[in-house]
Amino acid sequence: MFNKKRRKEIINYYDSTFFEYNFVLGFKNHLGIHYGYYDKDHTTYPQASLNLNRILAKKVGINKSMRVLDAGCGIGGSAIWIAKNTGAEVIGITLSQNQVDKANKYAKDFNVNKKVKFLVRDYTKTDFPSEFFDVVWAIESVCYAENKMDFIKEAFRILKPGGHLMVADGFLKKKKMNNFEKSLMNKWLAGWKVLSLDYTSDFKNKLKTARFKKIKSQDISNNVLPFSVWVSRRAKILTPIAQVLRIFNIFSKTNVENGNAAIYQYPALRQRLWEYVIVIAQKSR
Question: Burial level of 47, CB count in 10 A (0-12/13-18/19+)?
Fold first, then answer.
């Protein structure tokens, strides 16, 4: 369970950086606050953002008869896409009331408010009934858990037998880093308020310990790399402006650190200090 200090830190980060994310990513058509899956047919960020949703939904076979939990839903982008494109019932949860309010508004804008709803909940202690969901979906949210096992155990509890957990997130890649590499990773993660990443193998072992079966992983770092490059370049231009705005108390330290993190994540990925991985596991029937 998120302690009070950690909860406040995450809420403040996302509430404070909404303008930046919207300005850089443009929420109008996709509502994504995550990396995108680029390929020959999806070459812009809005296309790649939606493409990641499509690929992940296909991998776990989401259909209109299912109930899906979007664990760490942000402003509702993936949940709204799932409801609109598969017909599934979706519940999105986040720690931020501001994100819930925005997500519920967007759900109405996209005409899926009868299929999706958003709540303030902790994904390590959701208070949903056991065996309630067919899919637990988590894009770039599990990284915020101080103890990833807390999330995994709760996901197992609320999944129906045969249900799937789907995680798309950053994972550590290089086993032994020098001081420069450690500093690079720390600047990136701290700027986005992430405490730590797991190695993919360690995360999969946690899934095994929690009694998940049919555990699969896929490294899609090459597909998210174009976004990594693009957002880093934009941050290099915009972060100096954020530093000036901070002087006038228009932006905060959090805004500046967010921009710096966007810069640092690219060289860290290019050097394969971390990797972007899809992990899917099934609860036994």
Answer: middle
Q: How far apart are CA 236 and CA 247, in angstroms?
A: 18
Residue 283 in any domain: the answer is: no
Q: Please work out, in degrees rounded to the nearest 5, the angle formed at the alpha carbon of residue 193 by the alpha carbons of 189 and 196.
A: 50
The residue whose two tokens read 């967010």 is 258
- Asked whether residue 97 is domain-assigned, the answer is yes
Please give the Cα distance from 166 to 138 (Å, whole number). Answer: 6
- Check: CB of residue 91 under 8 Å from CB of residue 143: no
Domain of 39, in residue numbers: 4-278
Place of tokens 């929420």: 27
Domain count, the chain: 1
Looking at residue 209, its pLDDT comes to 98
pLDDT at 107: 97
Selection from 168, 189, 167, 191 nearest residue 177 by Cα: 189
Q: Do the beta carbons of residue 272 and residue 174 sit within 8 Å?
A: yes
| Residue 51 · residue 37 · CB < 8 Å | yes
Residue 143: which CATH number?
3.40.50.150
Per-residue pLDDT of 236-262, as tens digits, reads 999 999 999 999 999 999 999 999 999
pTM of the prediction? 0.97
Average pLDDT, the chain: 97
Find the Cα–Cα–Cα–Cα dihedral 210, 93, 85, 64, rounded to 10°: 60
Residue 284: inside a domain: no
d(CA 126, CA 167): 17
